[in-house]
Amino acid sequence: MKSAPRTKGGLIGLCVLAGVLVALTQFGPLAKDGGSLLLALLFWATVIEGCVAAVAVGTVIRAKWVASVKRELLSVHPLLLFVSILFLFLVPFVDSYPWMGRKGIWFDKSFFIGRNFALLLFAYLAARRFSIACEREEEGKSSFAILYLFVFVVSQSLMAFDWVMSLMYPWISTLLGGYFFIESLFGGFALSGILYVFLYGRPHPVGETGGRSDMKDLAILLFGFSLLWAGLFYSQFLVIWYGNIPEEVSFLVKRLSSSPLRELTVSILVLYFFIPFFVLLPGRSKTNPYVLFAVSLSVLLGILIERFVFVAPEVPLSPLALGIDFFALLFLFVSFVAKGGAGGRILRA
Amino acid sequence: MDKPDRLAQVEQDVLAAMKRPGTAYLAALGCSATLFLTLLGLWAYQIHTGMGVAGITHPVGWGVYITNFVFWVGIAHSGTLISAVLYLFRARFRTSFNRPAEAMTVFALLVAGLFPLIHLGRSWKFYYLFPYPTQRMLWVNFRSPLIWDVFAVSTYLTVSVVFFYVGLIPDFAIVRRFKEGLGKRIYGVLSLGWTGTRRQWKNYNQLYLFLAAFATPLVASVHSVVSWDFAMSIIPGWHTTIFAPYFVAGAIFSGTAMVITLVVPMRKILVLDRYITDDHFESIAKILLFTSLIVTYAYFVEFGLAFYSGNPFEMEQFRYRALGDYTVMFWIMIFCNSLAPLTLFVRSLRRNVKYLFVLSLLVNVGMWVERFVIIVTALARDFDPYAWGTYTPSFVEIGITLGSFGLFFTAYLVFLKTLPVLSITEIKEHL
Amino acid sequence: MERRMVFTEREEFLSALRDLAREGVSQDRLRVETPFYVHEVDEILPPKPAKVKNFALIGAAGGTVTGFAFTILTSLSWPLIVGGKPIISIPPFLIIAFALTILFGALSTFFGFLLLARLPSVHGFVPKEESGNAFVITVETGETK
């Protein structure tokens, strides 16, 4: 593809193409490695929902920096519909979950698929309604933002508990739901940072100091969220480490006992916390677009690696399938942002 | 009104609270002081007779004293949130609340600090908790959550007192101007000779910013450490990863309710309507609603995952919590913390100060009960049915609980008469 | 003769300050007193970076180092295995180090402030002249450049 598609039809066509590609990897010769689609979805559903959530949060607290990247962030919300359909491709994979066959409505396969699909769909609908409200500058857009945030919290929590935590059934961690939606929000802010740098990033002239600037606000937000994330990570880690209960600590042991998972786990800490915190600590770096870009990229990489570390010991993964799924979604994401930024009246179905 | 007149008006309005106390004030002070003396009396009785006069026994070794400790530490957090965190967010509405909120933090911490001492029994052995080497050069066990508490709460108390004092320095200079004789000298010394020069303001601003930046992580970390007193155990109902953010949200929730409980009557009695408006209360109400939702989320997740896991101990613990011996307390907690605050989605209720006051009382009760339910039900019924039991607080414990409120309100009433109740300098700056 | 100009209006005060700055009066001879922080003053007079943050940084770093050093060295001095945890158990020690970081940082910032702002200043305890809500410029005797 040489240039981003300019029409609604073009975007839908791209989606269909991507869907077919993903289906091939899921149901074709690589079908044994269903985990790859799960991982790709774990990353992209998080990031896309996070983008819209970032705008929603910014709208509710009336943050000033939101206005500069709002349109681009909201333009990716149709991908939530695509992601929900892709989730259906995971149906055969669900059979490999360890809780399959247990009695109780919660463990009923159709209910599992149904509730997660429904939540992704609701997230799409709520995001769409919110996006339209923002487009038309409606009075009630805060209410739609709050509605979306409710759906977002439930959707992300269930993503954590159902998609990831139940892979290790009967291991439970009550914090995982909150952990996931904070990461999603963090990812949304990181993506805002990347978009901001692409759209407006010129290094400020030397000597311009003080005062409020969108870039500085975003940098402070990323700084604060890195601290918040570190606190949540530590809360979960400390409780599991300290109790040392065999059925619970196996989660940590599997991921910390041997290379390469051990190094990857440490890298998560570096990417999510140490880099954003220490790099954004000095005042001068907060107005440097290169720094903001690097930190945002570090956070997004952290999300990806962490999701990998979560699922890798539990599911079979194929690099090829993962690559295809991941880059298909990345390409779609970029196309939507490019289209949306240029005047996104397209996907108003 | 002209600008200089308005500045003088602010001073007059706020300092009016510091004039001679009337009968109503003295009556209130008398009541709370009596409650406080009751606390001291009952504590003396407990030290004299022994811990048996309290209801705590096997298996519930932590009861109302620890509930009070967690409750009061929690209340302190909201004050720091309002003064430090909202400062970093440049939230304008904070200037009308931050002085009473900071005072609330300091007093709540002082009250909270009493409870580990009371709970010790042999209160004179309190120094065991401090990090010093024993005669045989053995230091304290830094891996114990109780020691973490010592560090976290002491740090929090120190930083809060410093932050509170720093905020008061320019205001002390103002009070110094209005006093004569001994009063002038006392406030003069307290103001450190502040005159408002450029050097002083420049450094002061950076100091305030950094203190706010240091105090902010304390809001999250101190109550997380307190929650880890419970989460580091392995009993069902306590050993759960969500405790840290859940307790922090709960702390801000109960603290915000206490701010409303304190500020609503204060505004009425001291006639401060011009400075504390209904808009301010609406913003505070939104914080109340938000933290209530987080607490409700935590309830759902805890219960849901307990039954999801299929672990018989977890399932029984949560069934017991909702339907067992303490079921009345549990449903009071659900009503006060999760259901009643939902009404704040209605804008007119958020702006109705009388309604907010009543709701804040409900939340205070609900959050106290929540701490009680968490602590007592988990201890009453853990793994081994042979070790199950129940707990009823004795009159000593109940009396000391009421006395702690007496101490808090005594301190607060004294604050109203001796220190400027609003941050005059900050209000002037934003006029 | 020491010149003392008292203004009740902020704008008059700022324009007088601008005039003085334009006349070339050196900064050491100017003393300004305001009832609250006026940021224009820092724009009119040449800026002097506040050094309080150095105290904050040093205090905080000192706190982290102390926290870890204290806990690790005392654990090593009498290595007892408690609760099955390693002798040098970083997760719990991190909490102590975190608390000390904040404590030392806050205290050192406060004392740094006292040092830099030259407080407590004894002559200000019971000052002869209170500027109150007025904006005051005091120009000390000396040569104008």
Structure in words:
The complex is a heterotrimer of chains A (349), B (431) and C (145). Chain A is mostly helical. Chain A has 13 helices and no strands. Chain A is globular and about 55 Å long. Mean pLDDT of chain A is 86; it is low at 206-210 and 342-349. With 431 residues, chain B is mainly α. Chain B has one domain. In chain B, 73% of the residues lie in helices and 0% in strands. Chain B has helices spanning 3-15, 23-49, 64-88, 98-120, 145-178, 181-190, 198-231, 243-270, 278-309, 312-323, 327-339, 347-350, 353-380, 395-418, 424-429. In chain B, helix 4 crosses helix 5, helix 8 packs antiparallel against helix 13 (353-380) and helix 9 (278-309) packs across helix 10. The model of chain C has no long low-confidence stretch (mean pLDDT 87). In chain C, strands 1-3-2 form a three-stranded antiparallel beta sheet, with helices on one face. Chain C is mainly alpha-helical and 145 residues long. Chain C is built from four helices and three strands, in the order βαβαααβ. The longest helix of chain C has 27 residues, at 90-116. Chain C has two domains: 2-49 and 128-140, no CATH class; 52-116, no CATH class.
Task: List the topology elements.
The complex is a heterotrimer of chains A (349), B (431) and C (145).
Chain A lengths: L7 H20 L7 H26 L5 H9 L3 H11 L2 H4 L14 H27 L5 H24 L11 H25 L13 H30 L2 H11 L4 H20 L8 H23 L7 H23 L8
Chain B lengths: L2 H13 L7 H27 L14 H25 L9 H23 L24 H34 L2 H10 L7 H34 L11 H28 L7 H32 L2 H12 L3 H13 L7 H4 L2 H28 L14 H24 L5 H6 L2
Helix pairs in contact in B: 2-14, 3-4, 3-7, 3-8, 3-13, 4-5, 4-14, 5-6, 5-7, 7-8, 8-9, 8-13, 9-10, 10-11, 11-13
Chain C lengths: L2 E5 L2 H14 L6 E4 L5 H6 L7 H26 L12 H27 L18 E5 L6
Antiparallel strand pairs in C: 1-3, 2-3
Summarize the structure.
The complex is a heterotrimer of chains A (349), B (431) and C (145). Chain B is an all-alpha fold. Chain B is built from 15 helices and no strands.
Give keywords.
heterotrimer; A: 349 residues; mainly alpha; 0% strand; B: 431 residues
For the record, give the distance between the C-alpha atoms at the N and C termini of chain B, rounded to a whole number: 12 Å
Low-confidence stretches of chain B: none
Q: What portion of the residues of chain B fall into strands of 2 or more residues?
A: under 5%
Task: Note the main sheet of chain C.
Answer: 3 strands, antiparallel
